[in-house]
Amino acid sequence: MNNLQQFLASKTYAVAGASTRREKYGNKVFRALLASGRDAYPLNPAQDEIEGHRAFRSIADLPMVPEALSIITPPAVTRKVVADAIAAEVQHIWMQPGAEDEQASESARQAGINVIDDGSCLLVLLARM
């Protein structure tokens, strides 16, 4: 199974950078995961609810550790999100285009996490399925 297949085989997901604004990619990724029948949790420290789902400030605030994490944040924020994911022992991280951070990717790989940071987009892959 390749990196993408491993990510998509996960049972639970979190979306860092999920937004209340439907035109933003964080919102689109969150909705796409839900529409594909996946259990997903929105992460956004500034929101209480996104698309009718309780939003969480960080991975540590979730009721469980998600197997997979999609990140749609600026690279400086990505570093903090990845540090939290490493501490929580998330298994898969997909940095969406624009969220990539070389330092964060390297740290996650050293922690044994499956990292997707090649510019591929989860929305494109889910649309093909």
Automatic annotation (TrEMBL):
Span of domain CoA-binding: 7-99
Residue spans crossing the bilayer: none
Any matching Pfam family: CoA_binding_2
Name this polypeptide is given: CoA-binding domain-containing protein
Organism: Stieleria neptunia
Lineage of producing organism: Bacteria, Pseudomonadati, Planctomycetota, Planctomycetia, Pirellulales
